[in-house]
Amino acid sequence: MDRSRVDVPCDALEDNAHDNHEPQTALYACIGCGVPWNDGERIAAIRTAESVGAGWKAAKPFKGHASYHLWEAYSTMRKLGDIVRDYLDKLKTDDLQTFANVSLSETYEEAGDKADPTGLQARAEEYAANVPAAGLYLTAGIDMQPDRLEVEVVAWGEGEQSWSVDYRVLWGDPLAGDVWDDLDDLLASGYLHESGRILPISAACLDTGGTNGYTQCAYEYLKGKTGRKLFGIKGVPGWGRPIVEKPQRKQSGKNARKIDLFLVGTDEAKLVVMRRFAVPVPGPGYCHFPIERDGDWYKQVTAEKLVTHYVKGQPIREWTKPDKARNEGLDCRVYALAALKIMQPSFRRLAEKLKLPGKPAEVAEVTADLPAAMAARPDETPPEIPTEANTAPAPQTAPVFRSKRVLQAKPRGSNYATNW
Question: What pLDDT was estimated at residue 412?
Fold first, then answer.
């Protein structure tokens, strides 16, 4: 039976005059010949059903447990008129979710909590510089996989408006070690701001989830890096959790230094990200994307959808994705958001700093937040300071500043985030 072929005697079900319909006259149209069936004919067809394609006859040998996925029209205890009446009642209360779950036996995707990759890519922009003028603070989200690290660098502005600045795949087994050197280089990069300044990655979050071996490897890399504002995180499900909770102290070995591990409420964080993807015009929460980003990335950041299903009569909301779909891009965006929530920078102060006249002597003020572990080398040549005379637009696909020279930051108050 095809549930799309239930004929209801009304001009338009979306009509607000729901009480004018006559559900008791509803008929089922045979998908084979189109002949309308009343309840008696429908029930007779169910009792004599043999078609495997209809989902009624088992296609595999019985092994002690039989299960079916059927909607209410297959029930000999339900009348078509009652099903249609329930549908009209749900239209009145704007509760089609319950009808989809209970009557159609389907999950229900909540409107506004999913994003269209094609629509997002269509609004991609050509940035005037690596970081547009309104982008004031850079964070990075790092997702660990068995053969690579994936990293998104995001610029944030007033109202948490965001610009995706860079996305990198660093190939290599995290257990082997070399890929961590590549990550060090990336986190030490600076990005050209439209003002002509160089902005550092001011905070980053590294996912420590996975098997014990990879978790241990992440812990080892994170040791002593809290002062660099590189934080270990672990995603935890559950609605109502904050995006970032206070850190827990974790030890990477019996005699090893402990690290701060932040728990990230992934369900709530993904909901924030998806709803911000749906913001239609630039402003608070709006997400900007660079013109050169490929289509696969858009599929990754929109891979998951929020669906609601019922377990023992209770609604359960959960994020789902198609089999074999990749979602690393979405995870990286969530972790970059978590880094912002940990640091909670003052965008007003950052905007005032970037309005200062550009002079070589002032570069330390702009780059004071570079990671402190960027070790100085006596034989290293200081980076060239951008000025009006020597600054040229850089390719948007790569950072323009990769010095590991120390730029000493001023002492700050100690807390669990800065740990100076």
Answer: 39
